[in-house]
Specification:
Blueprint: H1 2-7, H2 9-77, H3 83-97, E1 106-110, E2 113-121, E3 128-136, E4 145-154
Antiparallel strand pairs: 1-2, 2-3, 3-4
Helix pairs in contact: 2-3
């Protein structure tokens, strides 16, 4: 009987060694996973800061446009003639005038409506952008404006001088 018990002593040692290998491997995976999660959360924090800084700029722009629309409505109400035409002209002139504060603003009349377009670029990352397009309604008593586009986008990174993708044309 003693010989049988002595013969099983090596199996326990192998199990202990195997258990240690499993625990060390799982511990290493846990450490690597924690580091990857930390790096990802730092990157997500940077992107969130960048986006909300852009959104702050865009909200301030919308606030200024809204203030201009309120002033234009007051000015147009005192004009004799067609209220809508006078209002749209006053708004167009006012939006063009804020070009000193927002030099990239684009004011255009399209499809019977007036549009104010502005693209904001991040101070931290030149490729990160937020595009805002406002449709100015002709009758502010119904609704002064509506947001047609509020889109975050990234400019493509510059080529490192490598071979570009095929454009589909044979030279």
């Amino acid at each position: 009987m003693k010989g049988a018990i002595k013969g099983n002593g090596g199996a326990v040692s192998i199990q202990v060694v195997f258990m240690m290998l499993v625990l060390v491997t799982l511990g290493a995976f846990a450490i690597v996973s924690a580091r990857v999660n930390y790096n990802f959360s730092v990157k997500a924090l940077e992107w969130n800061r960048m986006y909300y800084a852009l959104e702050d700029k865009a909200e301030r722009f919308v606030m200024e446009v809204d203030n201009l629309l309120i002033k234009a409505e007051t000015s147009a109400s005192g004009v004799n003639g067609d209220f809508s035409d006078a209002y749209v002209k006053i708004v167009f002139d006012a939006l063009t005038a804020i070009g000193s504060v927002y030099p990239d603003i684009a004011v255009r009349e399209n499809d019977g409506g007036l549009y104010a377009e502005m693209n904001f670029t991040s101070d931290i990352n030149a490729q990160a952008n937020l595009r805002v397009v406002l449709h100015i309604n002709g009758d502010p008593r119904v609704r002064r404006y509506s947001v047609r586009e509020w889109a975050q986008w990234q400019a493509p990174a510059e080529s490192a001088g490598g071979t570009g993708l095929w454009n589909g044309l044979f030279d």
